[in-house]
Design brief:
Number of helices: 6
Distance between the termini: 23 Å
Number of domains: 2
Number of strands: 21
Structural class: mainly beta
CATH architecture of the largest domain: Sandwich
CATH superfamily of the largest domain: Jelly Rolls
CATH topology of the largest domain: Jelly Rolls
Largest sheet: 8 strands, antiparallel
Strand content: 35-45%
Shape: globular
Order of helices and strands: EEHEEEEHEEHEEHEEEEEHHEEEEEE
Helix content: 10-25%
Radius of gyration: 19 Å
CATH class of the largest domain: Mainly Beta
Length: 316
C-alpha cells in the first residue's frame, strides 16, 4: 500500500552559497558549501532518493515509474511538474530572469520558470532584487548593461523572516546576501544571467551571461499584476502563499495537529522549516523534523501532521 515517503536531498555547491544548511538543517555533505538543497526533484541534473521504507534507495523517478504517474497526478504531463529547494545565500546571487513555457520549450525543450520564495531567515539589512525600478524599460536596462550601470536600474527590497515573494516568468530578480529561503518553482533550471558583479567562477573566468535571451523575455510587471498571477486560481486564505496555474503553496505554524489530504489531482510535498513532529497516515507514524522533506502520493486520502513545527505544503 502506498504511503508518505521521506526524501534525501540533492546538494548544489555554488560560489555564493553558505553553510547554514549543514549547521542548522542536518544536511550532511562533503561539498565546501550547500548553496541549494533540492528537496523535491526529478531531473537528470538532480534526483531525490527515497529514505527508508519499502522503496528505500529508489530514486524518486524509479518510485514513480514503479507505482505509476498517478502517484503524482491524474493530469496528462510529460514530466514531473515541480522543483522545491532550500537556498542559502551567503553572497549575492546573479541578477537573472527566467522565460515562460513557450520560450523555454522553443529554445531548450524545457518548461519556463515561475517561482515563489518564502523567507525563512534574513540577516539585518538583507535585501533582494525584485524587478526593475519604476519607469525603467527594457531599452534602458540594455543601455545600462552596455554602460556597466545595471545596479542603478534595479528595484531593491528589504526582507525579513516570513516575507513571501512571487516571481512570475519574465521578472528580473536576485536573492541577496544573508537570506535563507524555501523556493517552490516549476521543474526548470533555465536561468538567464543579466549581471553577475563581474565575479569569476571556479575556472577563474567570468561566469557566463545570457544578455540576448534575457532581453527577449523580461517583463516588468506591477505589484498588482504580479498579485493577480500569484492568486490566479482564486484560492486564497490565511495559510495560502500562492495559488497559480503551476502550484498551490500553504504555510502552517503548528502547535497541535492539522488534518490534510491528497486527491487524484496532486501529490503533496511537505517541507519542514522548523521544529519537530509526526506525520501520521493509516495508523503509521513518520517522524518529521527541521529540514525534512516528504512526498505524499496523490489520491492517498487523509493524513495528519502534529507537533510544534512550521511546514510548507505544496501541490500542483
Amino acid at each position: 500500500m502506498l504511503k508518505p515517503i521521506k526524501l534525501k536531498p540533492e546538494f548544489k555547491e555554488i560560489i555564493w552559497g553558505g553553510n547554514r544548511l549543514k549547521n542548522e538543517y542536518n544536511k550532511v555533505s562533503d561539498l565546501n558549501n550547500i548553496a541549494e538543497s533540492w528537496e523535491l526533484t526529478v531531473r537528470p541534473d538532480g534526483m531525490n532518493i527515497v529514505d527508508g521504507g519499502e522503496f528505500d534507495g529508489f530514486t524518486l523517478e524509479e518510485y514513480i515509474n514503479k507505482n505509476g504517474f498517478t502517484v503524482v497526478t491524474n493530469k496528462e504531463m510529460d514530466r514531473f511538474p515541480l522543483l522545491i529547494k532550500f537556498i542559502d545565500a551567503e553572497d549575492n546571487l546573479s541578477i537573472q530572469v527566467h522565460p515562460n513555457d513557450e520560450y523555454g520549450m522553443k529554445t531548450a525543450n524545457s518548461l519556463g520558470k515561475t517561482e515563489m520564495w518564502y523567507i525563512i531567515d534574513a540577516k539585518p539589512g538583507a535585501k533582494l532584487v525584485y524587478g526593475l525600478k519604476e519607469g525603467c524599460t527594457v531599452d534602458m536596462l540594455k543601455e545600462a548593461i552596455d554602460n556597466n550601470t545595471v545596479e542603478e536600474t534595479l528595484n531593491y527590497v528589504p526582507v525579513k523572516k516570513g516575507d513571501v515573494f512571487f516571481i512570475p516568468s519574465g521578472l528580473v530578480h536576485a536573492i541577496g546576501a544573508g537570506i535563507l529561503l524555501a523556493e517552490i518553482q516549476q521543474n526548470s533550471n533555465i536561468t538567464y544571467r543579466v549581471y553577475d558583479y563581474n565575479r569569476k567562477g571556479k575556472d577563474g573566468k567570468p561566469r557566463e551571461l545570457h544578455i540576448s535571451n534575457a532581453l527577449d523575455v523580461i517583463i516588468n510587471r506591477t505589484e498588482q499584476e504580479i498579485d493577480k498571477i500569484r492568486f490566479s486560481t482564486n484560492v486564497k486564505n490565511n495559510t495560502t502563499l500562492a495559488s497559480c496555474e503551476y502550484f498551490t503553496v500553504d504555510k502552517y505554524a503548528l502547535d497541535g495537529e492539522i488534518k490534510l489530504k491528497t486527491d487524484e489531482k496532486s501529490f503533496n510535498s511537505v517541507l519542514c522549516l522548523d521544529g519537530d513532529g509526526t506525520l501520521e497516515f493509516n495508523g503509521e507514524s513518520f517522524p518529521i523534523t527541521k529540514g525534512d522533506s516528504y512526498f505524499v502520493p496523490a489520491n492517498l486520502g487523509d493524513y495528519s501532521i502534529s507537533g510544534k513545527l512550521e511546514i510548507v505544503v505544496s501541490k500542483i
